[in-house]
Specification:
The chain is built from 5 helices and 4 strands. It is of the alpha+beta class. A 4-stranded mixed beta sheet has the order 2-1-3-4, covered by helices on one side. Strand 1 and strand 2 form a beta hairpin.
Length: 152
């Protein structure tokens, strides 16, 4: 895919199939997540890399295409086994902001707490991802938030 095609793919509307750029290496993903956790105001590139890497981890931990998890503007993945959708808005969607997503991914925030705080927008079946979070590979918590249940 050339740069023009990639730029077009990244500007498609919500619910469209979007081509993700190259896979983020585990080393780069862990480093971005550690940088994100170590500062109160991480830069956009660090946050974006950490979000995209953890979304990829989720899609590998819960393979499938029945739920779309969106963390605008950084990325979206399909995951969880079940009915597959191929066009338009999927029947099951989870959407949240980057900070909430990374807190969920690292175990800093529990799914139920984020949901009761209104930080998650969910629709459809299979959208409770608590069985898949926190992610277990490479997760870290923000400085001062306690120990992480995730292996470094």
């Amino acid at each position: 895919m050339d740069q023009l095609d990639l730029a077009h793919a990244l500007t498609l509307g919500v619910g469209e199939d979007v081509a993700m750029p190259r896979r983020i290496s585990d080393e780069d993903g862990r480093a971005a997540l550690a940088r994100w956790a170590a500062t109160e105001s991480p830069d956009r590139a660090t946050t974006g890399t950490a979000v995209r890497w953890t979304l990829t981890m989720l899609s590998e931990a819960a393979p499938g295409r029945s739920v779309e998890v969106r963390v605008p503007p950084f990325g979206a993945v399909q995951c969880v086994e079940g009915p597959v959708h191929t066009r338009g808005t999927p029947p099951a969607v989870v959407e949240t902001d980057a900070v909430t997503w990374l807190r969920l991914a690292t175990g800093e925030t529990a799914w139920a707490d984020a949901q009761s705080a209104g930080a998650l927008r969910t629709s459809g079946n299979r959208t409770d991802l608590s069985a898949h979070l926190p992610l277990r590979e490479g997760g870290v918590r923000r400085a001062g938030s306690g120990s992480s249940p995730c292996a470094p």
